[in-house]
Amino acid sequence: MDIQAISLVGGIGLILTIIVSLVPTNIASFIGQKLSFQKKGLHYSRFYRDQRDLLGNLLLFVTILYSFCFGFIPISIEKYCFTILYVFCFIVMVTQYFHAYSQKELTQRIPTISALCLLSVTNYIAASGFLNNFGLMYPSMEFIQSIQNGNIYRLTYFLAYNHFICYMLNIFLYFFSFYCLIAQFKYLRLEDCVKAKNAVLLWLKAILISIFMLGLSYYGYQFILFIFNIQ
After folding, report:
1. pLDDT at residue 231 is higher than 60
2. pLDDT at 134 over 60
3. Contact status, residue 122 vs residue 16, Cβ threshold 8 Å
4. CA-to-CA distance for 25 and 103, rounded, in angstroms?
5. pTM of the full predicted structure?
């Protein structure tokens, strides 16, 4: 576990949460009007008889594609690519939040935006690999190499190596962290509110998901090591 990196990211996340939560109403309104996607990309589907978000679906598709194909990116730059894409998703979610809540007072915005920031920071820590010293990343890269070399076609490959299960766990951590951002982004565009009935339920959801993701990132990897008897 990389305590220094976790402390650094957690500290930056805490400062970011405070700054975003305390943005004055006039600045939040300006950001929401000028920097968000507003309602661009929304259209009415006759087939579904409902509003569809083409932009949100495109962003979701890109993150799904990245989550499955990250192993083809050189490991020296992959973590930077993930961070850039994650930060971009976070920014579009926050700007859309400011657009939807541009008329709300600061005291009304603090409970919801702080919960979203907390969830975003903890999901990033869980997915980035700091909790398991990038222990999922290296077997994932080796799994991609095994695909290219044809080693996965051996009958004993999946029993002898933990590469595949590490790869699948990494995919889930990546995708779910992206999904939490994009789901809120799409809901803010379609419904002009966060994806929760009230701030209390949003905080409860954020805490439960944070515990789940952090636990899965650390204990999930430890469980894989235990199953495959790796010291």
Report:
1. no
2. yes
3. no
4. 7
5. 0.89
